[in-house]
Design goal:
Layout: H1 2-22, H2 36-44, E1 49-51, E2 56-60, E3 73-83, E4 94-105, E5 114-131, E6 134-147, E7 157-170, E8 173-183, H3 193-196, E9 199-205
Antiparallel strand pairs: 1-3, 2-3, 3-4, 4-5, 5-6, 6-7, 7-8, 8-9
Length: 210
């Protein structure tokens, strides 16, 4: 397993390094004298509070059936980040707090019960990756806790150390990847990696239409 982990790390880092070397944020004509210090100063001046993961509210039901407590529910997620520092830490990094909460809610049942809740707080360090006056990506080292908020046999709780990277290909396209090392206490959740995996990857496209 350790060998597989090392191969995945090398693959992810190599991919993102290649993308970062070729990607860049395009500058508008009025931008002048752009360098690492000016980029960090711009980031320091931005709001400390922001979104983290996707925030959504969605309803799902069976096709060609009347919605009921047996075939339909609501799923939603709230996720945000709180920057705690400016770029004054070693390597010009930033300290962040993160929090995400996901819920499965049966609004078609009389008592409106939540079938499952997932809490995911974390604290981490982020560093902007800047080359030749261009912001080309971001690295984040994160300590996370994930739990359903229950105890005993119903508990689903674990911790993980995560390393994520994002590379900006252009102003409308970003690719990202995340790898984590689990920290699991006890025997109840030893198989959690069968359901959560050890990495994820994706991309984000932003439309120019307003």
């Amino acid at each position: 397993m350790a060998l597989v982990h090392r191969h995945i790390i090398v693959l992810v880092v190599s991919l993102l390094s290649t993308l970062a070397m070729t990607g860049q944020i395009l500058h508008t004509p009025h931008q002048e004298k752009i360098n690492a210090d000016s980029i960090r100063a711009d980031f320091d001046s931005r709001p400390y509070f922001g979104l983290y993961k996707d925030n959504y509210f969605t309803v799902g039901t069976a096709v060609n059936q009347k919605p009921s407590q047996y075939n339909s529910d609501v799923k939603f997620q709230v996720s945000f980040s709180q920057r705690l520092t400016r770029s004054v830490l070693p390597l010009h990094s930033y300290l962040f707090l993160y929090y995400s909460q996901k819920a499965f809610w049966n609004v078609f049942e009389e008592s409106l019960p939540f079938h499952d809740l997932n809490f995911n707080p974390g604290i981490g360090l982020s560093k902007l990756v800047i080359m030749k006056g261009n912001l080309i990506g971001k690295l984040t080292l994160l300590l996370e806790h994930e739990s359903n908020g229950r105890d005993g046999e119903a508990s689903r709780s674990w911790n993980k150390i995560s390393l994520s990277a994002a590379a900006f290909i252009d102003p409308q396209l970003m690719v990202h990847a995340k790898y984590w090392i689990p920290i699991i206490d006890g025997q109840q959740n030893r198989d959690i990696l069968k359901y959560s995996g050890i990495y994820q990857a994706g991309f984000q496209a932003i439309s120019t239409n307003k």
